[in-house]
Design a protein that fits this description.
By secondary structure, the chain is an alpha+beta fold. It is about 25% helix and about 25% strand. It has 19 helices and 37 strands. Strands 1, 2, 4, 7, 8, 9, 10, 12, 13, 14, 17 and 19 form a twelve-stranded antiparallel sheet that branches. Strand 26 and strand 27 (about 420) form a beta hairpin. Helix 4 packs across helix 17 (about 655-665), helix 8 packs parallel to helix 11 (about 490-510) and helix 14 (about 580-585) packs across helix 15. It is globular, with a radius of gyration of 26 Å.
């Protein structure tokens, strides 16, 4: 098999090398280190497809050896490939996000005298290895080899020690979360159960939830105990030597609680002796965490868990088989697909129980309940990819969203473990659900889904949890700029997209009046168009445009009136539901193309910013200009998606940027979330085979072949589907899934 290993060449120079190449399975073509620098915020630790459990090396605290420290700056990932100081493995992590959360239950092996201060017990490390479902390193300070793997809801670690005293620590006081508080109870010499409080993602103080766990070791220790950071005390405790330090509890084994607590297991070990550690988690109870562990790991068998994890990834990644291209391109593709299959992830335990949305209730499902819906990001492409290649997973995600409405009264916007964080903009569940429905995934509560969408699209602002600024939007067709940096234009543009999708759903359900009103509402984006600048511009409460106005303001996360995480340029073509209206608004095809090309020529395009990632495909709406889509996508792929730690342009946003690359490398992209279709672009590979789902698509296979006269040929000359010339650069989902073979004929010049 092919594995990625990072070896230290000097103290400061690192590189990747291939360490084995005995097979050619999809999992061998994944490099989990991609995106672990350049703020990609991915991590190389093991996780299963859409699994609850993930394990990450945690190297973002405790030492000046690290370039990035979670306690000294805004930092949202448990791992950076730029860092050197390891303080354990964190359990249940987020991938590709921009706010710190989770990344707790820090498991750390040490050797020698017991020390529970992470600044002291942390270690530099060498010989990192990561493949899907497996991670390993060697801790330089202790000469301990660490290995970890995972099942859907549990983890297993194997630590190989030198001779002498060995310690295993579980630290509940640290992590990426900004929430605090935990408790533990020792069940036996080899098992501890407990809970840690998590939440406040993106500093939403009410989005709080518990994670329950059971930790189990495979060998009885010589001794066990707890530690707890004691509060600083003065004259009232002059006799207490533990004031302000981490106190060891060596003879107390009942319950313990606090903000900074931990447990340890100490051993007397032979050279090369191993200790294995399992952790099961649940978001319902410690009983369920134990149930998950007992169900998914029958005893201790590291090789079996690792093998099953690899097999799970091979099965998932085999939905797309690519041939041709370079080795690096194949690695970028399969790693992109790998990253896209991390979130949303399973929330329910093996017995079907899960925490209900925005309540203290416990629900139960007969299928899978999902969580981590970063919908402002993923509504643009991730869910379309899931619908095509993993439709049953996507259907259960739609059911999860509808059930969230039943439990909490609203569809999710950015849901995290059954708490709504209200992060980012819009009403993004609507286009996801409608797109799934239009593509044939209809086995969900459709009437309740419409009720939920209609509620957020019509409820007055004072009572509207998702659209609190809806009043002016409904009465005036736009949202005025009320405060200096209120993101008003971004909000309205997202509402227009959601309402257009909802209008189509309403029409299909026979609700014609609603459909007509919502459709017309979705066209009010034109109110923001400033002929003077040729872009969207904030509108003041008096109806006048904001002055002064700089359409470039907002680049590089600069504060900007009216727009969120971007400039006016990044939003001014984000009208996927009415591209032809957008063209007319700009004064016709030529002016539209020139203005759109200006985005790329003058470097206004931001590859890290979702609102503009559909821009390259807008060229293809103008006949004769499709070559610009093909040229631009090839350039963006080559520049921003690489087989290296900095191989993502920025935050992966729970797989959204990776999915952009995956679709483009296959030669088609879902640029309009309100339309069940794709825009063609130039495929990267000579041949791609898509193996569709047995139940939803009758195990149909689509073969995509690319005939190129030379390696430099990037322009599409013609497209054939099943031997017949296809005259459009857009293809419907229905046409795509019925195609047996799509052939792209390329040419060298446009």
């Amino acid at each position: 098999m092919n594995c990625f290993r990072k070896s230290i060449l000097t103290i400061v120079a690192f590189t990747f090398i291939w360490v084995c190449s005995f097979s050619n399975e999809p999992a061998d073509k994944v490099n989990p280190f991609i995106g672990t620098t350049n703020y990609g915020t991915t991590n190389p630790g093991p996780v299963l497809p859409n699994g609850m459990m993930s394990v990450s090396p945690f190297n973002v605290m405790g030492s000046d050896l690290n370039r990035f420290d979670k306690d000294k700056q805004w930092w949202s990932t448990p791992y950076s490939n730029n860092n050197k100081f390891f303080t354990g493995f964190s359990h249940v992590n987020l991938s590709g996000v921009g706010c710190p959360e989770l990344g707790s239950l820090l498991l750390m092996p040490t050797a020698g005298e017991l020390n529970v201060n992470y600044e002291d017990y942390g270690s530099e490390y060498v010989e990192e290895v990561a493949t899907p479902g497996y991670y390993s390193n060697i801790l330089s300070k202790y000469n301990i080899k660490t290995e970890v793997s995972a099942t859907t809801r549990t983890s297993i670690a194997r630590f190989t020690f030198p001779e002498g005293q060995g310690n295993i620590l579980l630290n509940l006081g640290e992590g990426l979360t900004n929430e605090s508080g935990a408790w533990m109870r020792r069940v036996s010499d080899v098992e501890v159960e407990g809970m840690k409080l998590l939440g406040t993602f993106c500093y939403n103080p009410e989005a709080v939830f518990p994670i329950y766990f059971v930790i189990r070791v495979n060998k009885a220790p010589e001794s066990t105990g707890y530690w707890k950071m004691q509060r600083q005390m003065g004259v009232e405790a002059q006799w207490d030597s533990t004031s302000g330090v981490r106190k060891l509890y060596t003879r107390y084994n009942r319950d313990i609680a606090g903000d900074d607590i931990g447990t340890y297991f100490t051993y007397n070990l032979e050279e090369g002796e191993t200790v294995e550690v399992q952790i099961g988690v649940s978001f319902v109870s410690t009983e369920n965490a134990r149930m998950n562990l007992d169900a998914e790991q029958k005893g201790f068998d590291f090789e079996l868990v690792q093998s099953d994890a690899r097999n799970a990834w091979n099965e998932a990644l085999s939905k797309a088989i690519v041939q041709g291209g370079t080795d690096d391109q194949q690695t970028v593709f399969y790693t992109g697909l790998y990253h896209a299959l991390i979130h949303p992830n399973i929330l329910n335990d093996v017995n079907g129980e899960y925490p209900e949305m925005e309540s203290d209730g416990i629900g139960k499902t007969n299928s899978n309940r999902y969580t981590v819906f970063s919908l402002w990001d993923t509504y643009r492409n991730v869910h379309q990819m899931l619908t095509l290649l993993y439709p049953e997973t996507q259907l259960n995600m739609v059911r999860s969203m509808v059930d969230m409405y039943k439990e909490g009264g609203w569809l999710p916007k950015w849901e995290l473990y059954s708490r709504e964080t209200l992060t980012m903009e819009g009403d993004p569940a609507i286009p996801v659900i409608v797109d799934s429905w239009k593509k044939g995934l209809r086995d969900f509560d459709i009437e309740t889904a419409f009720e939920a969408m209609y509620k957020s699209a019509t409820t007055p602002g004072k009572d509207n949890f998702l659209r609190p600024d809806i009043d002016d939007y409904l009465s005036r067709g736009f949202i005025p700029l009320e405060t200096e940096f209120d993101n008003s234009v971004s909000h309205a543009l997202e509402y227009y997209i959601a309402d257009n999708a909802l209008s189509q759903f309403a029409q299909a359900l026979g609700k014609d009046d609603d459909a007509h009103r919502l459709y017309n509402q979705s066209l009010n984006y034109k109110k923001y168009y400033s002929p003077e600048y040729g872009v969207f511009r904030p509108i003041l409460p008096n109806g006048e445009f904001l002055f002064p106005f700089n359409p470039k303001q907002g680049e590089n996360f600069e504060d900007v009136p009216g727009f969120h995480e971007g400039s006016s340029w990044n939003y001014s073509f984000m009208v996927p539901h009415d591209v032809y209206g957008l063209i007319k608004m700009h004064g016709g095809k030529k002016k539209f193309i020139n203005k759109l090309q200006e985005v790329f020529d003058d470097e206004h395009y931001d590859p890290t910013n979702e609102p503009n990632i559909g821009y390259p495909f807008l060229f293809s709406y103008v006949k004769g200009e499709e070559w610009r889509t093909q040229k631009t996508t090839q350039e963006l792929l080559a520049k921003h998606f690489k087989n290296s730690t900095d191989g993502l342009p920025g935050n992966d946003d729970t797989g959204t940027m990776s999915t952009w690359a995956v679709f483009n490398m296959m030669g088609f992209y879902p640029d309009n979330a309100t339309d069940a279709s794709y825009t063609f672009t130039t495929p990267v590979f000579d041949k791609i085979t898509l193996n569709l789902d047995d139940f939803h698509y009758n195990a149909h296979t689509i073969e995509i072949e690319t005939i190129r006269p030379s390696s430099n040929a990037i322009y599409i000359d013609k497209i054939e589907i099943d031997g017949k010339r296809f005259r459009s650069y857009r293809i419907s989902h229905e046409e795509l899934i019925k195609a047996n073979k799509i052939t792209f004929y390329l040419r060298n010049k446009r």
